[in-house]
Amino acid sequence: MKFATNSDRILPESDGILSAVSKIFDEHAEITKVSIEGHTDNRGAPAHNKRLSDKRAASVVKWLIKRGIAKTRLTSQGYGMSQPIDSNDTDEGRQAIGASSSTSSRSTGSRPTRARTRGEGVNR
């Protein structure tokens, strides 16, 4: 996922991946719950990055709901920099956290499937 700098506004270049996710929901009713996660790198204040990651994950949920995905199938949670999905020790790791991608997998039970939104903190 790509977001405007220091914002929860999803950039148009993310529409393709979100449309693909929406299509998967449409084609797979057995996916009953997906948790959208927001993560940031370690640049910026922890409290700010936590709020930003919350807002970005919620923004993805809103996008999907606007396209007809039932709200009951979606949850969101931001983790800020508390659960890095790559190393914050190198520029490469921080860039990976800020990379344009999200992941998801099927869920057939009551446990949510996880999809991640990645973005740098105040710098992305």
What's the arrangement of secondary structure elements?
Elements: H1 15-27, E1 34-39, H2 46-66, E2 74-78, H3 91-97, E3 113-118
Parallel strand pairs: 1-2, 1-3
Structure, briefly:
The chain has 124 residues and is an alpha/beta fold.
Describe the structure.
With 124 residues, the protein is α/β, with parallel strands linked by helices. The chain has a single domain, classed as 2-Layer Sandwich (60s Ribosomal Protein L30, Chain: A). The protein contains 3 helices and 3 strands; from the N terminus they run αβαβαβ. Strands 2-1-3 form a 3-stranded parallel β-sheet, with helices on one face. The longest helix is centred in the middle third of the chain and has 21 residues, at 46-66. The chain is elongated. Mean pLDDT is 77; it is low at 99-113 and 117-124.
Keywords:
3-stranded parallel sheet; elongated; alpha/beta; 60s Ribosomal Protein L30, Chain: A; 124 residues; 3 helices; 3 strands
- Taking pLDDT < 50 over at least 5 consecutive residues as the criterion, the unreliable ranges are 99-113, 117-124
CATH-level-2 architecture: 2-Layer Sandwich
Basic shape: elongated
Give the N-to-C terminal Cα separation.
11 Å
Proportion of beta-strand residues: 5-15%
Count of separate structural domains: 1
